Amino acid sequence: MTADEAGAKIQLMSLSIFGIRHHGPGSARSLRQALETLRPDCLLVEGPPDAADVLPLLAHPQMKPPVALLIYPPDQPQRAVFYPFAVFSPEWQALDYGLARKIAVRFMDLPQAHRLAMADDPESQISNPESQIHDDPIGRLAAAAGYSDGERWWEHVVEQRRNGADIFAAILEAMTALRESALPANIQRYGNVRGTGAAMVGGIAAGLIARVCIGLPGACASLNDDAATAMFDRIVNVNAAIGLLQNEEHLAAWRGAMAQLADQRGAHGIVAGRCCRLLVDAGVFAPDEAARRLSLALSTANEPAQAAAWIEGFLKDSGLLLLHDDVLWRTLDEWVTTLSNESFSVLLPLLRRTFSTFAAPERRQIGERARRGMTIAGRAAIGDQTRSEAFDQARAEAVLPLVAQLLGLKMQE
């Protein structure tokens, strides 16, 4: 076989994954139906690779379930691991299907030789509480759907279904979405195209959204800088995912939760600022409301660091709003000019980090606007006071090096 032929063969291969529950009659029935339809040429079944040599025995005429595999260290038989199989076990149905048709059948899992060795290593037993979604996505799906545990949810959704042709793809995609973003909104969208359990995943998404909206304000209380930055990313991702659903009820609940968080006393500035910006982008907050909130965030009642964090949350990744709204520009400009030298030096790295997230054309336009000074609209808003005061060219030029440093620009000679 040539390299091109081998490459073409690999491209024709497809991989199907079937999530099952041990000893689940519904899973076993649905899996058998799926295999009959798919007609695979290779099967990988969850089980101990250590038992590969005994797999052919399962095809012996006298081998009738219930049966079991027993694996243990020869010097410690009390540490035996037991793998039971019944006729209603999905694993047994898969093995029986493959061996009867003489296709390749293999066990796949971490070998018990390694698992037993790891059991002797205390460091391997340390768990990370943040890995709950990755380790038990079924439990999270069940909780989102209002079930007390994963077993009850699985029994209702999978085991009691008579036709499970599409259930495996829907569950796989929902689990993948939970591990990636904790919200399977994109799976519901794709399900409409593929027809793979969109209604079921839609119910999961609705439950998750309700819990997220209820729990968001409490989850954002008393965050330190690192936790607030992580929450910023989660809020942005959830906002994008809910937008995919195009469901007005979900959008209203989510925007209500963000509005509550934007008003929450003690909320970290980067979180409150981002909620305000998302609501402005969605048209919930008008530009004058955004300006009012920016003014409140920058008031002398707040610590300069908190105000700078709010600016970062509000402006991060896009400075267009600042460029196109004279009131926002003037509010921010007045706040910067009233900072003491000490406060400005302390906040400069944070402000510069915020402005560095803007696209290069945006940074250039902001620099040009700062060089020009007030816009015509800005002068009109100030009125006679501006016209009556002489413009101090030297004083304005003295500020330009600091503005250039803030924007990460080089001063032209």
Report on the architecture of this protein:
The chain is mainly alpha-helical. The chain has a domain at 16-117. Helices cover 62% and strands 5% of the residues. It has helices at residues 3-12, 25-38, 90-100, 112-119, 132-135, 137-144, 150-159, 167-181, 185-194, 198-219, 225-245, 248-262, 269-281, 287-297, 304-315, 320-324, 326-338, 341-356, 360-372, 376-382, 384-388, 393-407, and strands spanning 42-46, 67-71, 81-85, 104-108. Helix 6 (137-144) crosses helix 8 (167-181), helix 9 (185-194) packs parallel to helix 11 (225-245) and helix 13 (269-281) runs antiparallel to helix 14. The longest helix is centred in the middle third of the chain and has 22 residues, at 198-219. The chain is elongated, with a radius of gyration of 30 Å. The termini are far apart. Mean pLDDT is 77; it is low at 124-133, 192-196 and 374-388.
Present the secondary structure layout.
Blueprint (H helix, E strand, L loop, with lengths): L2 H10 L12 H14 L3 E5 L20 E5 L9 E5 L4 H11 L3 E5 L3 H8 L12 H4 L1 H8 L5 H10 L7 H15 L3 H10 L3 H22 L5 H21 L2 H15 L6 H13 L5 H11 L6 H12 L4 H5 L1 H13 L2 H16 L3 H13 L3 H7 L1 H5 L4 H15 L6
Parallel strand pairs: 1-4
Antiparallel strand pairs: 2-3
Helix pairs in contact: 2-3, 6-7, 6-8, 6-10, 8-9, 9-10, 9-11, 10-12, 11-13, 12-13, 13-14, 13-15, 14-17, 15-18, 19-22
